[in-house]
Specification:
By secondary structure, this protein is α+β, with helices and mostly antiparallel strands. Among the domains are: 131 residues, Orthogonal Bundle (Butyryl-Coa Dehydrogenase, subunit A, domain 1); 124 residues, Beta Barrel (Butyryl-CoA Dehydrogenase, subunit A, domain 2); 152 residues, no CATH class. The protein is 58% helix and 10% strand. The protein contains 20 helices and nine strands. Strands 3, 4, 5, 6, 7, 8 and 9 form a seven-stranded mixed sheet that branches. The chain has a two-stranded antiparallel sheet with strand order 1-2. The radius of gyration is 25 Å and the shape is globular. It starts with 7 loop residues before the first helix and ends with a helix. Bound molecules: flavin-adenine dinucleotide. Flavin-adenine dinucleotide binds next to strand 3, strand 5 and helix 14.
Length: 600
């Protein structure tokens, strides 16, 4: 039967054994009271909520989907009640400022929560998934009046929020958007335009919805430097029109591949009243706060979904009897066939899933700790450094972990064979649902370009260099002989990445198209540098703690070994592509394939 078991032991391994998260967090004055027991308690409670309340609704939401009736969206049975339980337990407020009713707990705990929510019900998680981004954006950029009106309702979860960016002709390129904002005499604005693909644009879960809308002022410069951000409530919260509806409506719902329980709405704004958030024409900068929060969350979701896919395909592989295994034990000599988990091909699929899930968990929790440090470290220089590191890691987490979320779900379907492709087993829903994560919050191609152009080449590789210095210093200090081969491989990889970054940067001056050809390879190479460093740390930690639980820690070391033996060599191919493109750029030049593509 399809199931989800919160991976509490592995979460504890990453947070407590590897990163000593509680003691790191205790150094920040706001988290002085945090200890391991408190963290464990919150994590166990989150696991209970996700597995007992959300997981049973996942298939229901998929089968039932959302409906639009007279301009009002109806969500699947049970979704609203699950959300109200979520709010009653205080989950939306977990990592929010106590000044606005938040619990003031670390983002690290919020990340664990969101891994489990995504693992059990991605469609439902889309509703509260945007709350934290909206909170951060308003908290940082809005006026005190707006903060006072909206933040307590967002923090408590009483009102949900949306992110209204996309228009029919403006997807990845938000500079093309046309929605207009005309100033009123009282300081508010009239917003008019059509937004598409808006998750949770309307729903029957909360009485009010806070839309964060990108639009252009009349004097706006063309392109992305002329976009402003507005808060536009569905129902006016105060003033003369308190309780009345704003002039905005959901005019359509998309039929789509997955996440059927999440309404993807076309929203029509007709002179809807909104208020400016942040400075005029600087809306994208403000919206990036929301998008970065959402990107981390989407990447964490990739890990969670891959976890559920792994758990279930492993259970299936242990039960499904098919073909004789080459290395069958003596005890099964007289059986006609063996569990498919005995076949090396299936073991490879499972170990790949496991290595990516556990590695992804290390990467996302490491980043969550950076986020806590970037906000709460007492030393401003440290805060800045952590913030910059996080900016570097965000596109990698979003793109690499969603690619692997899909790959993990696809591997799981493969393990189920034909029984995975048909609907009864439940695994195909995961593969359909997770596919969108590679597209929304900035497609994975856009993430790769953002990483290489804005986060690496724009500062001449400085930030990346600092990260690689940290990795190299840990490698040089290694004394564990068991991982010496892996250490050498990672040392080679960091040297390769430094070298390629330098050469791609140089070559791009003469061949500006080059980085766009190799951005995806450079992103995966950077991702592997960090993952391999984390896997070394995991392996060393497991060796040190082995006697406490030899079965668990040996499995961890073997998974690390699997990553280094079967997965890391992917970097040779990736570096090979970048090398070849560099060579081609300098000899015959890089091809523009458009003409060839259109040859029939
Ligand atoms: C289910 C769902 C929920 C969504 N939720 C929201 C939401 O809540 N709010 C919201 O505002 N939007 C939302 N979106 C929209 C989503 O963010 C966009 O679909 C996404 O940003 C891509 O835009 P697009 O679909 O127009 O594709 P395009 O921008 O048209 O891209 C098409 C392809 O071209 C590639 N491409 C485009 N530009 C470049 C480039 N410069 N270099 C290389 N490749 C490029 C893309 O990577 C992609 O592969 C949602 C979409 C879906 C399907």
């Amino acid at each position: 039967m399809f199931a989800y078991r919160p991976p509490l032991k592995d979460i504890q391994f990453v947070l407590a054994d590897m990163f000593q998260a509680a003691s790191v967090l205790q150094h920040y004055p706001e988290f002085a009271e945090i200890d391991q027991d408190l963290m464990q308690q919150v994590i166990e409670e989150a696991g209970r909520y996700a597995s007992e309340i959300l997981f049973p609704l996942n298939a229901v939401g998929d089968a039932e989907g959302c409906r639009l009736e007279n301009g009002q969206v109806k969500t699947p049975a049970g979704f609203a009640s699950a959300y109200h339980q979520f709010c009653e337990a205080g989950w939306p407020a977990l990592a929010c400022d106590p000044e606005y009713g938040g619990q003031g707990l670390p983002h690290t705990l919020n990340s664990v929560l969101y891994e489990m929510l995504n693992a059990t019900n991605l469609a439902w998680t889309m509703f509260p998934g945007l709350l934290h981004g909206a909170y951060s954006c308003i908290h940082r950029y809005a006026t005190d009046d707006i903060k006072r009106t909206y933040l307590p309702k967002i923090v408590s979860g009483e009102w949900l929020a949306t992110m209204c960016l996309t228009e029919p002709h403006a997807g990845s390129d938000l500079g093309l958007l046309r929605t207009k904002a005309i100033p009123n005499d009282d300081g508010s604005y009239r917003i008019t335009g059509t937004k598409i693909f808006i998750s949770g644009g309307d729903q029957d879960i909360t009485e009010n919805i806070v839309h964060l809308v990108l639009a252009r002022l009349p004097d706006a410069p063309a392109g992305s430097k002329g976009i402003s951000l507005f808060v536009v409530p569905k129902i006016f919260p105060e003033g003369e029109r308190a309780g009345q509806r704003n002039s905005l409506i959901c005019t359509g719902l998309e039929h789509k591949m997955g996440i059927h329980g999440s309404p993807t709405c076309t929203m029509q704004f007709d002179d809807a009243t909104g208020w400016l958030v942040g400075e005029p024409h600087r809306g994208l900068a403000a919206m990036f706060v929301m998008m970065n929060s959402a990107r981390l969350q989407v990447g964490i979701g990739g890990v969670g979904i891959a976890e559920t896919a792994y758990q279930n395909s492993l259970a299936y592989a242990n039960e499904r009897i098919q073909s004789r295994a080459v290395n069958r034990p003596e005890s099964r000599k007289n059986e006609p066939a063996d569990p498919i988990v005995m076949h090396p091909a299936i073991q490879r699929l499972l170990m790949s899933q496991r290595a990516w899930v556990e590695g992804g968990r290390m990467l996302t929790y490491y980043s969550a700790l950076l986020l806590d440090g970037a906000e709460h470290h007492p030393d401003p220089a440290q805060r800045k450094e952590m913030d910059e590191q996080l900016a570097l890691l965000t596109p990698i987490i979003k793109a690499v972990m969603t690619d692997q979320g899909f790959a993990g779900a696809s591997n799981a379907v493969q393990i189920y064979g034909g029984h995975g492709y048909v609907c009864e087993t439940g695994i195909e829903q995961y593969m359909r649902d997770v596919r969108i994560t590679m597209i929304y919050e900035g497609t994975n191609e856009i993430q790769a370009i953002d990483l290489l152009m804005r986060k690496i080449l724009a500062d001449k590789g400085h930030r990346l260099g600092q990260l690689l210095d940290t990795i190299d210093a840990t490698l040089a200090a290694n004394t564990d002989k068991a991982v010496s081969v892996a250490v050498t491989a990672v040392q080679k990889l960091t040297a390769t990445l430094r070298d390629l970054t330098e050469r791609v940067g140089q070559a791009s001056l003469e061949h500006p198209v080059l980085p766009y050809h190799v951005a995806s390879e450079m992103m995966r190479l950077t991702g592997h540098c960090i993952l391999s460093w984390l896997w070394l740390k995991a392996s060393q930690t497991a060796t040190a703690l082995r006697n406490n639980d030899p079965t668990f820690y040996d499995a961890k070391r073997h998974t690390a070994d699997y990553y280094f033996t079967y997965i890391l060599p992917e970097t040779l191919q990736l570096a090979g592509v970048v090398e070849t493109c560099l060579a081609r750029a300098q000899t015959q030049g890089l091809q523009d394939f458009r003409g060839d593509l259109n040859v029939q």
